[in-house]
Amino acid sequence: MFGMVRVVVLTDNKALNLEPTGLKAEWGFSALIEANNDVILFDTGQNSVAFENFMLLKCKKPSKIVLSHGHFDHTGGLLYFLKNLEISKIYAHPDVFATRYYKGKHIGIPFKREQLENYAEIVEMKDPIEVSKNVWALGEIPRKHESALLPDSYIVRDKKEFDEIKDDQSIAIKTDKGVVLILGCCHAGIRNTIEYAEEVVSDEVKFVIGGTHLIAFKEQKLMEIIDWLKKKVEIIAPCHCTGLENEFLLMKEFGDRFKLISSGSVIEI
Length: 269
Fold this sequence. Notes:
17 strands; 7-stranded mixed sheet; single chain
């Protein structure tokens, strides 16, 4: 038997009229995951908004952080949590700390690794790792289907190269009802991510929450992906880089299997 999973969206691009009043939105994503008596923070938004909403919502305190990838809108709020909470570990792909640019603008993590090490142990990982009982950070995701990359972007490791955003990862949670998959930005591609989560957890993905990055695809490919999702997923709750127009499209296609979420939304499975 598995316990209930509770996901609190700390920040998203939109803030619906939810209680308590005063919740904020920003271009970014952060979610608090409660599963099997543990609390995990997945991403931190781009500024103080996620932490401010966390305090307003009076959430349980996380002890671990998982970073989906190294873009500023998922990592910029790190120090607000690290300075005010007791975080033991940060799980991240090595590329999270690399320098990266999009159309000439720096879009990478706004901190040096050494700054973060003053507050928590950094666990570098490319392979899946069980960060808590029945909760996996998926690591680097194999790409058999389309991925959602950024044109005119590059990363600096030993040298400058096109940024394939290899650090993009998601969180998969095993439950009695199937796998709950929580996406940060899903640059690795939603079909690739779902199939890999199923391989890692040895169960079917039934619930998808978070940033799908469907904003990257034009109509024909977009509908191909949505048709595939409709056959696979029971409930979808997209936000952030899905794009508002695509959220409405998913609402139409999924009907009552679609959940509209924003900063402050709580999903219990």
